[in-house]
Amino acid sequence: MKREEVYNFSAGPSVLPEPVLEKAASELLNYRGTGMSVMEMSHRSSAFMDIFAETKAKMKAALKVPDTHEILFLQGGASLQFSMVPLNLCAEGDTADYAVTGNFANIAAKEAGKYCTVHVMASSEDTKFDRIPAQEELRLSAEAKYFYYCANNTIFGTAWNYVPETAAPLVCDMSSEILSHPVDVSRYGLIFAGAQKNMAPAGLTVVIIDRALAGHERAVTPLMMSYQRMIDKDSMYNTPPCYNIYMLGLVLDWLETQGGPEGMERIKHEKAKLVYDYLDESRLFRGCAWPDSRSDMNITFRTGDEALDAEFVKFSLANGLQNLKGHRVAGGMRASVYNAMPMAGVEKLVAIMKEFEVTHRV
Amino acid sequence: MKREEVYNFSAGPSVLPEPVLEKAASELLNYRGTGMSVMEMSHRSSAFMDIFAETKAKMKAALKVPDTHEILFLQGGASLQFSMVPLNLCAEGDTADYAVTGNFANIAAKEAGKYCTVHVMASSEDTKFDRIPAQEELRLSAEAKYFYYCANNTIFGTAWNYVPETAAPLVCDMSSEILSHPVDVSRYGLIFAGAQKNMAPAGLTVVIIDRALAGHERAVTPLMMSYQRMIDKDSMYNTPPCYNIYMLGLVLDWLETQGGPEGMERIKHEKAKLVYDYLDESRLFRGCAWPDSRSDMNITFRTGDEALDAEFVKFSLANGLQNLKGHRVAGGMRASVYNAMPMAGVEKLVAIMKEFEVTHRV
Q1: Do B335 and B232 have their domain in common?
Q2: Residue A45: its chain B contacts at CB < 8 A?
Q3: Looking at chain A, which residue has its C-alpha nearest residue B320?
Q4: Does the predicted interface ipTM exceed a cut of 0.90?
Q5: Residue A4 lies in a domain
Q6: Could you report the per-residue pLDDT of A84-107, keeping only the tens digit for each?
Q7: Residue ranges making up the domain that contains B341
Q8: Alpha carbon distance A202, A58 (integer Å)
Q9: Is the full-model pTM beyond 0.90?
Q10: Which residues of B touch A328 (CB under 8 A)?
């Protein structure tokens, strides 16, 4: 199939902007007259150091990261952060507050339990993670070293549509929503995000950390898992995932053409509204998340009939819509509508859903 | 500059085979009719699962990995392995033997000291890491849980030209020599290697582990650092560095055209011999490593005069030879002659050295 015949709704790794891929392909054998691919460059070479510094500067500009915070380019995915956060931010016996609103927040809380006392201060597990707690439902502990939450729950299609008010520093997993809207970084102690949804190919994790929180890792912290060491070495204690960083730079260039996170926020609302408006009027499909907890990035829906869900997934595939099958722990369907998904893809999704509904209305 | 005007002697990330880069560029926007880039594929998609399985099978075939051993594709670089090895292979209070023959073995030994009793059973630090100890010099401890060594010391240009005989399982950092010669994997408990020298772009770490050694990690081991979990999940506990794995597959295809590790062993000897033979006859340059400890992958040399070294580096750069400056802790020059460095690059290096010697002989 040709690229224009396919819309890829994968939850991650996921679609990248076509101009970014075109630029990458054109530079792949020879980056700007260096005679080398970025993949072949020493991470200490001036050509790569420039790419690194420019990408970091673009990230800083896109999210208006204040000078109090450091941007790190790490490896290991968000899952390594699940351990790195408590190892660096808690001493043994300390307490941390965790909001368990989905699969990954749940894993993060369990992992932190190995290193500190975890206080699960809100959970929507009893209703299959279909909603985000309101501020007044958060049972915050006075002694918490930090408050942890996952801003967007990829599997269940919910998002925190507000920033929690807490005394403890906010630690936030923004993997599936980073760069899709402006963020007041000064309100956060630590933000982390796997790159493979809105930023770059899998293999890069971006961390934005208030420098005041670093430097307190406990003695058993592995060499590569000290935020302070990574700050001191500007993410180059060892060889960073260079090509992913280069790709992030290209994605940030493209993001700027879309108006940055501010422009993207408007576009993502438009794209998501198209699908949610249809879901609200459909007599076949319905959305899984509570309306006030809906994610613009991951739209979960179902017919209520597993066989019919499977038939729709098959029908969508035949029409070039890839990866609409929901995650195995959630079932149903999921359309991941990340930054790089064009409006045309969302329009086609709704058209296909309507076509399916006409022939399958019960 | 054009690619053909440049030879890149970087110690890592380093040169990749041109046919591999050409293939990658040609498939970058649309992988074999899927309408997607490999960078955009869900790691659970059938297209990517095929790439993953094929790459693993090619790796198994190239190194004749026995069925007792598992191949893992991880993140974090060799430096994460420095912690992962002791966390998984030692209980508190256990002893491990470390041969400290260079910078990275030194860091690995220090890191292991956080988790177990490290017995440095051989070191060449007093002579600036210019040689590898012989078997009879290894002061092995009877109770060691494993014997750790770094097969090729990138910075100092030395290599273990034999496989140590030990009672404890061998753990080996093969980052800068993997796939450059055949290895009897059955003699090793664990082999690991960062990809960015002989395998793929930076961001992938290949681990080959005897399954019998896994499953004993201590309780504080971070989620992502359990070998057993990674074996159980076939390296997909979380999203792996998909594109790097794809690139490794392409490199393994190319390696086969060169006769695999067997063919590469012959080629690497030929390439290295060209430089070492000249070093042995030169009246200006001399090799840094003891002859019986010389590495075929990283050839270190100097004139004995720092100003002259710097002048040679400048002269080589003007002639399209990149990254010949030695590592800052070693000084002098270093030519990294990994698998993808063509013979023509080595011939040009020797020609340029000769030209420089004629005009600068003291």
Answers
A1: no
A2: 10, 322-323
A3: A35
A4: yes
A5: no
A6: 999 999 999 999 999 999 999 999
A7: 260-360
A8: 19
A9: yes
A10: none
